Amino acid sequence: MKDCGAFKASREIFEWLAQFINLEQGYTPPSMRPERMQIIAAAAGHPESCAPAIHVAGSKGKGSITAMVTRILEESGLRVARYMSPHVTEYRERITLGDAFFDEPIYIAAGNKLKEITAILTDETSAEYKALCDVSDGGSAEPTFFELLTLFYFLCAAEAKVEALAVETGMGGRLDPTNVVPNSAAIITVIELEHTEFLGNTVQSVAREKAGIIKNDKPVILGTQNFDEALEVFKETAAEKNAPLFYYPDTVEIKNLNVTKNGTAFQLVCKDKNIFNKPLSINLGMIGEVQAQNAALAILAVKKTFPAITAETIEKALNGFKLIARFEQLQEEPAVVVDGAHTDFSVMLCVNTWKKLYGTKGILIFGCALGKNAQAMAESLLPNFSEVVITTPGTYKVSDPQSLYKIFTDKLAEYNSNTDNKNQLKTKITFLPETSKAISYALDNVKIKNAPLLGIGSFYLAAEIRKFK
User: How many CB atoms within 10 Å of residue 112?
Assistant: First the structure.
């Protein structure tokens, strides 16, 4: 492995990390074992315990909620280390102090500690660690990219002496490296059937993995669930661990919701007046009804972890709050919008918002990674755009745009052959696998047709589109 000596810049740390097995890029680690992360954290002196943590899992909305939690805590005067994935423009976005980067000396000091710890762990004398890496089966004794990235985050947080942690899981929960954190509260969003090769192929198995972040006697803030079997798993796990459960529909209510092209305004009413005895007036810069629920989950978790935080602080923190690549408008009239939605349910919600604000005559540019439910996404997308441009969602994750194009063309033919569908779809489907050419083509058509454009399916595709604007 390349040894670059002591790091002198954060860029060098991320380049070094890129040498390790990276699940995000389609490489399968020899095993996924929480015990291994425990050994890694212990070797570092348990930096994950440096401050109270709010831990976020689920199939969608994790990043938005983690960012909202961070913003509220910052507004209250706390120094907060935020951990999110994926990044949109550069790796430092994953590990930040609030919504800004750490100072370079923090990244560098933490990175050099990380490298020292990694060298110790992979040394031949570290038998306990190697035993958890399946070396006997030909596996590598090296930690994975996400294990090390997670430890890097905790080291940065400890180095900066932060007062709170806002931590987004990478995948699942029980097996995720972030689960080493002794959280003070857990947030779990809606559950979908995803990452089945790792989390299991039933809703119950996925829910059990997500429920793995629930800790003994610590509150759980649970988003509305679409599947009763998922809800039952969370209720059972919370009861087993004596963890107070706050289920969104039973705990809060959204009133006077107003979604516009400029944001989402609503009133948050707590059914338990011991949480807040008056409605909170929230005015987000983020667009979409789902963002109101995301904000509610963030608010509940913050209040349960830091009960002294006031309604006024929360309202001020979230006033105009935005996050890149979440129904982000890059241009007005005609609009160019990007969104990182990449599951069938999140795509459906995004398209519903799009249809209400922009109608069904716009242009779509779409690309997603392998393993996504492209069939369901095609079904949601095709009736709502005059043209769909299929492309590669950047080069970071493994994808198959040719198969994706076939899914969309087959779905269009199937729709038009169904006699129950009285109106035939005339959606044009264009295949341009080279991402830059697809984006240029789509943006040119925005000007020619004076039509709005939505880019969706991957945060990496959103990042590529942002480069053009």
Answer: 16
State what percent of residues in the chain have pLDDT above 70: 90
Phi, then psi, of 155 in degrees rounded to 5: -65, -40
- Strands of 196-239 (E only): list them: 220-222
Nearest residue to 14 via CA among 76, 113, 85, 91: 91
The three-state secondary structure class of 408 is helix
Distance of CA 288 to the CA centre of its chain: 16
- Report the candidate in 319, 314, 254, 316 with the shortest Cα–Cα distance to residue 286: 319
Distance CA(345)–CA(367), nearest Å, equals 16
Tokens at 459, concatenated: 């945060």
Q: Using one digit for the tens of pLDDT, what is the confidence trace for 257-302?
A: 999 999 999 999 999 999 999 999 999 999 999 999 999 999 999 9
Strand, helix or coil for residue 175: coil
Nearest to 339 by CA among 58, 60, 36, 92: 60
CB 20 within 8 A of CB 141: no
pLDDT tens-digit map of 160-171: 999 999 999 998
Write the pLDDT tens digit of every residue in 62-81: 999 999 999 999 999 999 99
Token pair of 51 as six digits: 């401050």
Q: Is 75 exposed, middle or buried (0-12, 13-18, 19+ CB in 10 A)?
A: buried
| Distance from C-alpha of 237 to C-alpha of 193, rounded to nearest angstrom | 19
Question: Long-range contacts made by residues 238-242, C-beta under 8 angstroms, separation at least 24?
Answer: 238/214, 241/214, 241/215, 241/216, 241/217, 242/216, 242/217
pLDDT at 134: 52
Positive/negative CA dihedral, 23, 29, 33, 37: negative
